[in-house]
Design brief:
heterodimer; A: alpha/beta; Rossmann fold; 2 domains; 5-stranded mixed β-sheet; 17 strands; globular; B: alpha/beta; Pyruvate-ferredoxin Oxidoreductase, domain 3; 7-stranded mixed β-sheet; 6-stranded mixed β-sheet; 16 helices
Chain lengths: 357, 488
């Protein structure tokens, strides 16, 4: 029998297919716009494969069910948006402390507070900078298409397991809600059975999992170990796509839907003879520092523009990456507004004009 | 009943307690006179007696029992404050062969984690919860708990718990007894040999239910905390027996164990790739007609469509149909709706882009090739997005012929009338797509491109209504009628 792997799916749905095909056994989640199609697709599809779907009582319930399912040695998925992710942060800190892998989808919306259901990218800080208590990091994938919603969910499981830490797939409401044709991968055939799982008997003793280290020196040593892991990730796992950056005088940095708009704007500006390029982070933790260092060292770039649907959150990482060697400007919209291509072009032209002075 | 653990230490305990840091490896970390040690012993003995040690998991709370994993040689995890029943749910559902115990104190269970607890109880999770009620927060130094008695002095109720402002003690068993799902609910005390023997019976029943996967069992244990209550052993036992039991009467509130059948394990997870695919993916139809349109010159650049109208007019599904036609023709497609409350009544719109190459932004806010307007309001909102050479299709039945630019084309169609003529107003979309076939032919589609368009429609609508042959037939009729109307 031949099956059609090419489907028309919402970004939210594609992530659920990706998870199932990656071998995810459990979905625990609470509905929230604009992420609800994830819970709906999971409710429909997980039981078909005799896998677990629970509509949890809350985001807190959901992330703790994840802790239980992951500790039991299974791949688990949850999803939410903005304010729901804020509620999950306690559990995510524990996952980091336990050194347990889990995949969390964040279909971002407007804030602060209840905000609205429009697409913002204002969850950057809470995902990239830790978000909960303690000095920890999470992997953060930033898909910009429905295909990547599927593929990066698969990748998120693998990288989370490789480094034993939580991984987010952060997509704005546009990427979650839009439909695109997507080519689904083959189902995973690996046997997932982590050696650290709770209850595994090793030398007659059942494994336990904890994040508590009463001795200060022990907790310091655990933190040193975690930081070493994060430095390794920062050195090895940066992911981005460079578009016409080699000769660019202005380099736009944008992820998610902003990167799609930026790419259109780059084409338009190039057609007008303006040397503009795009760095699209496919992960924002680790941040593509090397790509930005390269344009600094290349000597052609005169400025960098961070394009974001927030008050300017990623721009801090852009500034750290260029180490004050290039001016970094912000082009942004907030409140659920998506920047238009013309708007980006106008902002880019303004920067180029200033530079020419 | 087995006698083998009557004396000495249960084999479910480590001996010595190697996981406990520091020099003390034989004793538990609990204060003198604390009830946790007794309850630990009863649970360990029951796990041994019912032969479930190898598959048992104890979820350790935040509170004095946070270090339960020092002692029990079973799977364990120390979890966030109050969340043990949610963690237990995840562990038990992910691994239904395991036997999961949630061990919690009164702050953990009845205050910060009450929602996780009551929801797990209400779902009837197949777990057993041991709830240690000692009327105060032991680990943090004797603060007021949900179970602190009226007038009782604690470090955060220095003038005594005032029911006017702090409420009355939370009767957990009684609240759980209002739920349908739980199988077994009993409250016991650790104050005398007789009471401890009753507690042992209750613990055994909860562990037996766990082994037999019968459902949710709760044992509330009134437990001495002499250090924080600043009492000696006799005083604390009197406090429990004479004062606590007034609010928390001992006894079994519910036992449906005997009437509840032994639980079945759920079916094994399906992982075999062919079976996974058969359950997740559609089969490839042998009657597929759609051409590979990725080589067509017309799709060598983005073709951008905007559809606007009113919720319920089929605006979003018209876009979906076009997107599916593109997908089946091996083109890249995107479909972007207005989402949220907008789709639940009021204005609706969506954008569709097809291209043989990559699609940049899925938003259509300019250079639109085809604008389909089902309402005047929609047209007013989006007419500015239509490109200079764009095509406007409007619903002839609800609006007057709009003015368009010099190089723009405009076509009116009474799609609803056509749909009604085939007996199903929901087929208006197919009438519009039928008309589009002709309109696009007039505006640059070659004959073979028109044929491919029609074949893609046939595939898309067949896929969509595979299970509803009557509706499929109506749609095909509407498509043909739409084509005919456009030709006229």
């Amino acid at each position: 029998m031949k099956y059609n792997h090419r489907l028309l799916l919402k970004g939210n749905e594609a992530a659920v297919y990706g998870a199932l095909l990656a071998g995810c056994d459990c979905y625990f989640g609470y509905p929230i716009t604009p992420a609800s199609e994830i819970a709906q697709a999971a409710a429909l599809l997980f039981p078909k494969l005799h896998r677990t779907f629970i509509q949890a009582e809350s985001e807190i319930g959901a992330i703790n069910m994840i802790i239980g399912g992951v500790a039991a040695g299974h791949r688990c998925l949850t999803a939410s948006s903005g304010l729901g992710i804020s509620l999950k942060q306690e559990g995510v800190s524990y996952l980091a402390g336990y050194e347990m892998p889990a995949v969390i989808l964040d279909i971002t919306r407007g804030g602060p507070g209840l905000g609205n259901i429009g697409p913002e990218q204002a969850d950057y800080f809470q995902l990239v900078k830790g978000g909960g208590h303690g000095s920890y990091k999470c992997l953060v994938f930033t898909p910009n298409s429905v295909q990547e919603m599927c593929d990066m969910t698969v990748d998120a499981f693998h990288m989370a397991e490789k480094y034993r830490m939580p991984a987010y797939v952060m997509a704005d409401g546009v990427i979650g809600q839009m439909m695109e044709s997507v080519e689904l991968p083959e189902p995973a055939t690996d046997v997932y059975d982590p050696e650290w799982k709770m209850g595994r008997i090793v030398d007659g003793k059942a494994n336990y999992i904890t994040s508590i280290y009463m001795e200060h020196d022990d907790l310091e040593a655990q933190n040193v170990k975690l930081q070493k892991k994060y430095r390794e990730i920062e050195a090895k796992e940066q992911r981005c796509e460079n578009y016409l950056t080699d000769d660019a005088e202005l380099v736009i940095v944008a992820y998610g839907i902003c990167s799609r708009i930026a790419r259109g704007a780059v084409d338009q500006l190039r057609a007008e003879g303006l040397k503009v390029g795009l760095i699209r982070p496919q992960m924002v933790y680790p941040f593509p520092v090397d790509a930005l260092q390269k344009i600094v060292k290349g000597g052609k770039a005169k400025a960098v523009m961070s394009l974001e649907m927030s008050a300017g959150q990623m721009i801090e990482d852009v500034k750290l990456a260029v180490e004050c060697k290039l001016p970094v400007v912000l082009c942004n919209r907030m409140g659920g507004n998506v920047p238009g291509g013309d708007e980006v072009c106008a902002a880019a032209k303004k920067v180029l004009k200033e530079l020419a002075k | 009943m087995s006698e083998k653990v009557k004396f000495g230490r249960s084999a479910v305990f480590f001996d010595p307690f190697e996981r406990r840091p520091g020099p003390i490896k034989k004793n538990m970390h609990y204060c003198p006179g604390c009830g946790h040690g007794i309850l630990h012993k009863l649970i360990a003995e029951a796990i041994e007696e019912y032969g479930i040690q190898g598959k048992t998991v104890i979820i350790a709370p935040v509170g004095c029992a946070v270090f339960a994993y020092y002692y029990f040689n079973v799977g364990s995890i120390s979890v966030p404050h109050g969340r043990a029943p949610a963690v237990a749910t995840g562990a038990s559902r992910a691994n239904p062969e395991s036997f999961v115990i949630s061990y919690q104190g009164d702050g953990d269970l009845a205050a910060i984690g009450f929602n996780e607890f009551i929801q797990a109880a209400n779902r009837g999770e197949k777990i057993s919860v041991f709830f240690v009620n000692n009327s105060n927060y032991g680990m943090t130094g004797g603060q007021m708990a949900p179970t602190t008695l009226p007038g009782q002095i604690t470090t955060t109720s220095p003038y005594g718990r005032n029911p006017e402002t702090d409420g009355f003690p939370t009767k957990v068993c009684e609240i759980v007894n209002a739920l349908e799902a739980p199988v077994y609910i009993e409250r016991v005390a650790l104050t005398s040999t007789a009471n401890i023997l009753k507690a042992k019976k209750a613990v055994n029943k909860a562990i037996e239910n766990l082994r037999d996967r019968k459902g949710f069992s709760l044992v509330e244990v009134l437990s001495p905390c002499p250090i924080n209550l600043k009492m000696n052993a006799d005083q604390v036992n009197d406090f429990i027996d004479e004062k606590m039991t007034k609010f928390f009467p001992l006894g079994c509130l519910r036992d449906r164990s005997a009437a509840t059948p032994v639980g079945e394990l759920p079916p094994a997870i399906i992982r075999e790739p062919e079976e996974v695919k058969s359950l997740l993916l559609p089969g490839i139809s042998e009657n597929s007609n759609a051409a590979d349109a990725s080589k067509f010159a017309v799709f060598s650049k983005e073709r951008r469509v905007k559809i606007c109208g009113f919720g319920g007019q089929g605006v979003l599904s018209l876009g979906l149909n076009l997107a599916n036609m593109g997908r089946l023709s091996k083109l890249n497609v995107s479909w972007m709706p207005s989402y949220g409350p907008e789709q639940r009544g009021g204005a609706a719109s969506c954008a569709v882009i097809v291209n043989s190459g990559a699609i940049s932004s899925p938003m259509v806010d300019r250079d639109c090739d085809l604008l389909i307007a089902m309402t005047q309001t929609g047209l007013d909102k989006f007419r500015h997005v239509l490109g200079g050479n764009g095509i406007l299709v409007y619903d002839h039945s609800t609006m007057a012929k709009p003015e368009v630019g010099a190089n723009q084309k405009v076509y009116g169609l009474d799609a609803l009338a056509i749909a009604n003529s085939v007996g199903n107003p929901k087929c208006a979309n197919s009438a519009i797509i039928g008309a589009l076939s002709v309109i696009l032919r007039e505006n640059g589609f070659s004959e073979s491109e028109e044929k491919a368009f029609d074949a893609a429609y046939l595939d898309a609508i067949t896929e969509n209504f595979a299970a509803k042959p009557a509706v499929l037939k109506q749609n095909l009729e509407a498509f043909a009628a739409g084509k005919k109307a456009a030709l006229a």
